[in-house]
UniProtKB/TrEMBL annotation:
Record organism: Deinococcus hopiensis KR-140
Alphabetical GO biological process terms: aerobic electron transport chain
Gene Ontology molecular function: any one: NAD(P)H dehydrogenase (quinone) activity
Similarity comment text for this entry: Belongs to the NADH dehydrogenase family.
Protein name: NADH dehydrogenase
Annotated InterPro entries: FAD/NAD-bd_sf, FAD/NAD-binding_dom, NADH-Q_oxidoreductase
Cofactor(s) needed by this chain: FAD
FAD/NAD(P)-binding domain residues: 2-309
Keyword Oxidoreductase in annotation: yes
Superkingdom classification of source: Bacteria
Keywords: FAD, Flavoprotein, Oxidoreductase
Keyword Flavoprotein recorded: yes
Length: 379
């Protein structure tokens, strides 16, 4: 059974590392980087240059899965072909597509051209280099940063940047830059309950971050953004760096006449995470549109991508051994948002669907624990 796994992010790597050598199974993991990126820690790399990658090859020892570093150009499910950037065409018996998501700029004028993103290591490096430049004596340009989108990524990023600015400011005797967090919706972090949100806002204000909720980003130039309030008032905010974390969409790389797509271009899958109408193709992680027990879309998170990957890896082994597939049952164990240093907020799931809200050092430990769990699960 010739099996291709495309992408070694949370979903693809989890699938590959849950496999084991089976005589009938020949599996290849294809990924454009030689490393796995801990995407959930990119904000730390952006502010502090923290190492957030891990070489892939050693992680595949004992799995029977081969690795190839290559870029996928297109996937044609009707022809059962994967075309690579270098022109080669790979075929498969079973295919796992786990190529993640891309930033959605919502066609806001000038935004894609002028804003940095935070989706891969090079994005984090670009932000880190900007911050360092701003704190050099030669820098004469605008020093301020506008971050668009106050979801998990935006909030985690601004707190790390504020911490870094205060450190560099002390070290180099220069004033910190201003950070503007721009959000069209009425509140930051809509996934959190009101008490946790209030705590988060307090932390952001203590850092001196300007929270501009109810401000829709209307356009961007190389050195400014235009925002509009609910009552139509427009303002221009000048910035040395604009970063957009306001939305994602599934990577649009898979073609198939009978594919069903949902919100954000995610590909609808069945209870075994196989693309609807394509039973030999599993779509997992941010690209897939799996439904939870209430029929609602499973969130695009590392937590769920990992669960889907682990199940798919095991299911591939089952298929090779002629066994039945196990169905996907998503669980959300909790959600934690780091707010710089040892500060975090979030909640964990308790029995009988109760949630326990946690803030401060304990929440930070819980956030770190989820990262350690991920690290242990792929070893
Ligand atoms: C800053 C930040 C913070 C986050 N924090 C959290 C958090 O705290 N908790 C949480 O649960 N989620 C968090 N997320 C979301 C989480 O990271 C994603 O939901 C998760 O990465 C999705 O996993 P995936 O496997 O679908 O995609 P990815 O992890 O993005 O993996 C896709 C892989 O495919 C590879 N690839 C892409 N295109 C090609 C190609 N053409 N050819 C070959 N390889 C390719 C990429 O290099 C990548 O390795 C955060 C995201 C960001 C950006």
């Amino acid at each position: 059974m010739k099996t291709l796994i495309l992408g070694a992010g949370y979903a693809g790597l989890a699938a590959a590392t849950k496999m084991k050598p089976v005589p009938e199974l020949e599996a290849l993991l294809v990924e454009q980087n030689p490393f796995h990126t801990f995407e959930t820690r990119l904000h730390e790399a952006a502010a502090h240059n923290t190492r957030v990658t891990l070489p892939i090859t050693p992680l595949l020892r004992g799995t029977g899965v081969q690795f190839e570093q290559a870029q996928v150009d297109g996937v044609n499910l009707d022809e059962r072909e994967v075309t690579m950037k270098d022109g080669r065409v790979l075929t498969y018996d079973k295919l796992v597509v786990a190529l993640g998501s891309v930033t959605n700029f919502y066609r806001i004028p000038g935004l894609a051209e002028n804003a940095a993103e935070l989706k891969q290591l090079s994005d984090a490096d670009e932000i880190f280099n900007f911050v360092n430049r701003v704190f050099s004596n030669e820098y004469t340009g605008n020093r301020d940063i506008v971050v668009g989108g106050a979801g998990l990524t935006g909030v985690e990023l601004v707190t790390e940047l504020a911490q870094r600015a205060s450190l560099l400011s002390r070290e180099r005797g220069l004033p910190p830059f201003q950070i503007y967090l721009v959000e069209a919706g009425p509140k930051i972090l809509p996934v959190l309950d009101d008490a946790l949100r209030a705590k988060t806002e307090q932390v952001l204000r203590d850092y001196g971050i300007h929270i501009l909720t109810g401000h829709r980003l209307m356009g961007a130039t190389p050195d400014s953004v235009t925002v509009q309030t609910a009552d139509g008032e427009q303002k221009v905010i000048s910035a040395g760096k604009i970063i957009w974390t306001g939305g994602i969409q599934a990577r649009d790389i898979v073609k198939g006449e009978h594919l069903e797509k949902g919100p954000g271009g995610r590909i609808a899958v069945d209870e075994f995470l196989r693309a609807k109408n394509y039973p030999d193709v599993f779509i997992i992680g941010d690209m897939g549109l799996a439904l939870n027990q209430e029929g609602k879309p499973v969130p695009t998170t590392a937590q769920h991508a990992g669960q889907q990957g682990r199940l798919t890896g095991k299911n591939l082994v089952r298929l090779a051994q002629g066994q039945d597939l196990e169905a996907y049952e998503p669980t959300t164990l909790g959600e934690f948002v780091s707010l710089g240093g040892l500060m975090a907020v979030g909640w964990m799931k308790l029995p009988w669907n109760q949630k326990l809200a946690i803030t401060g050092g304990l929440a930070h430990v819980m956030k770190r624990a989820s990262e350690w769990r991920w690290r242990a699960s792929i070893d």
